[in-house]
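Proteins fold reproducibly. Next comes an illustrative record:
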Amino acid sequence: MRHLTFYFDVVSPYAWLAFAQLPEALKGLSYSVSYKPLLFAGLLKHHGQLGPAEIAGKREWTYRQVLWLAHQQGVELQMPASHPFNPLALLRLAVACDAQGTPNRYVCETLLRHVWCGGLEATDAQRLQTLTERLAPRLDVDGADVKAQLKAHSDEALALGVFGVPSIAVEGRIFWGQDALPMLRAFLLGDAWFERPDWHQVSQLATGASRQR
């Protein structure tokens, strides 16, 4: 059985699309998954980047694209009342639902549906209270242990080279984005391409020009 680690932030619509598609994308394969919430904004800060929803033009295109992808793939998705939003409360709730900070698939789906199904405000206080009561976290959502575990997930992901969400780590390789699921399946099926030098050689590719920031 192959083990996968699914790094995600509930603020990402691509995380919801990839999460929803994962069972079908890997149908027939023997695998297990650990789900690790992390703060996407922390990845962006580390790499000195803006998120798609922080760039004029790209923001609107991103929303149009994810709505189309959901339509095309038969996945329920409605934009929340406002986006982007601060996902910390939801991420801490996810971590608090498991003693090791790795929520199960039911918890992750409940949180992602809270954001991406219904078109409501993701951080509405009453909705958050209802969600917390439903999930009945094992740990104190606002406790130091939960905050430390959430940061540990981000630190772990950065150490592996994760730069965006969703990212799936398996056997030292990172597969980024909802559209990488066919590539992940090919790897797990033993596609010979992954034994060729292409995967590793790109990291030695020379940079021809660099813009000043």
Notes: Residues 13 and 189 are 27 Å apart (CA to CA). Residues 2-204 form a domain with the Glutaredoxin fold (CATH 3.40.30.10).
